[in-house]
């Protein structure tokens, strides 16, 4: 088995690597600038700002797998409990020459899957019971290969960090507002306090908006990259296309209330938890359209056929 520092047999993707580096650089720059602004404006509160921002960032990165698992209702399963699922993961990891991640199942009728974890050694691949009931073995392997490629390319960790920084900007603003730090100290006059109270939330909104757009752009590309890598690894792009079509159609039939509860984690899912109407209308989707994904897989299938 390969170590986390070695390459796997998943096809490398320079486009994805470049986008990940660019996204992390820009979001990191935004975050550092926003933290610096808070320190400059709130003066005496800077130790609290640094402590909160640093502590929350480390906690989110270090415990991202456990946080995501708990939020999505996933639980680890053994080979005895789910032999077919573990067998598929074992075969794909051997084929890809990568460490086997922990395997989890979420008791949810929505057919979907996700991967999380800060690195391949701490990764978790999870499928829902709804997915297991609906897919054939080859289709399931295509979905699992897609999720394993996220782990191998390390874009799971990048998405976790990138998404968290935008949310953290908003959280720090709320802490500053409700913690009474907007006044900048007892000696600040009312006009300064008013300026600070106006500027910080506006900058926070801008940071969140830019982070949101950057992560959406990266998310759409990484899904196409994962489809490509999975199709090339398994040699069965048609199985992945079949799984995509089936999962997307079944998700559209899930009650809207259940879909909305899952939408906060769309960036991690194999297919977005959206109704057909929402998927067509969503301008800033976490995923490319089904048509784009199927067209790419059809091209790969033709290339493999030659």
UniProtKB/TrEMBL annotation:
Gene3D superfamilies xrefs: Metalloproteases ('zincins'), catalytic domain
Q: Which InterPro entries match?
A: HtpX_protease, Pept_M48_protease_HtpX, Peptidase_M48
Regions that span the bilayer: 21-39, 45-63, 156-181, 193-214
**Pfam entry (one):** Peptidase_M48
Principal EC category: hydrolase
Q: Does the keyword Zinc apply?
A: yes
Which residues does the UniProt record annotate as the domain Peptidase M48? 81-299
What residues does Zn(2+) bind to?
A: 146, 150, 223
Q: Which family does it belong to?
A: Belongs to the peptidase M48B family.
Q: What is this protein called?
A: Protease HtpX homolog
């Amino acid at each position: 088995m390969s170590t986390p520092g070695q390459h796997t047999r998943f096809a490398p993707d320079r486009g994805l690597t470049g986008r990940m580096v660019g996204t992390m650089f820009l979001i990191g720059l935004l975050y550092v600038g926003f933290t610096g602004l808070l320190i400059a404006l709130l003066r005496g509160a800077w130790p609290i700002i640094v402590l909160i921002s640093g502590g929350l960032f480390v906690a989110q990165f270090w415990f991202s797998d456990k946080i995501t698992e708990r939020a999505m209702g996933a639980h680890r399963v053994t080979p005895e409990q789910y032999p077919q699922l573990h067998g598929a993961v074992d075969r794909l990891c051997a084929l890809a020459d990568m460490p086997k991640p922990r395997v989890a199942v979420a008791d949810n009728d929505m057919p979907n899957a996700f991967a999380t974890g800060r690195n391949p050694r701490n990764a978790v691949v999870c499928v829902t019971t709804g997915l297991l009931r609906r897919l054939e073995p080859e289709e399931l392997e295509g979905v699992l290969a897609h999720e394993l490629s996220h782990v191998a390319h390390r874009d799971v960790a990048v998405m976790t960090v990138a998404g968290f920084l935008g949310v953290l900007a908003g959280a720090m603003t709320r802490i500053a507002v409700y913690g009474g730090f907007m006044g900048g100290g007892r000696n600040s006059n009312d006009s300064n306090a008013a300026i600070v109270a106006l500027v910080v939330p506006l900058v926070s909104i801008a940071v969140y908006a830019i982070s949101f757009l950057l992560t959406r752009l990266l998310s759409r590309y990484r899904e196409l990259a994962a489809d490509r890598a999975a199709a090339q690894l398994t040699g069965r792009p048609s199985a992945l296309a079949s799984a995509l079509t089936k999962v997307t159609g079944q998700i559209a039939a899930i009650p809207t209330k259940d879909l909305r509860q899952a939408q906060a984690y769309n960036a991690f899912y194999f297919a977005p938890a959206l109704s057909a109407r929402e998927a067509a209308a969503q301008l800033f989707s976490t995923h490319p359209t089904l048509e784009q994904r199927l067209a790419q897989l059809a091209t790969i299938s033709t290339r493999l056929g030659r």
